[in-house]
Amino acid sequence: xxxxxxxxxxxxxxxxxxxxxSLAAKLVQAGRVRINRDKATQPADxxxxxxxxxxxxxxxxxVYRIVDPGLRRGPxxxxxxLYEDLSPPVLxxxxxxxxxxxxxxxxxxxxxxxxxxxxxxxRGGG
Length: 126
Fold this sequence. Notes:
The chain is α+β, with helices and mostly antiparallel strands. The longest helix has 11 residues, at 113-123.
């Protein structure tokens, strides 16, 4: 590869966007990584300083401008120097994790402990 370029899976691992390089490779193969708005097709796709990566994780979207390719997976402070964070701001008030939880209607799903006791009393077991 040319100087200053690095594999996208390696860069995601070094920047601590994912926990392992194999997870980074799976993200790329699943089509959840874009390099300058183009879908990354292989974990070996090269990235360079100035490229913008868009990574779709479970409950958030990361948008990073690459500043440095990095040499290793170091501490978090070192990893933060590899990119400029352009991610959209988190909505205030509700946590993003709560916004994605499904809403279950009352009475559907498993009964509560109180409801189980009432059922047992009706059946004469307790």
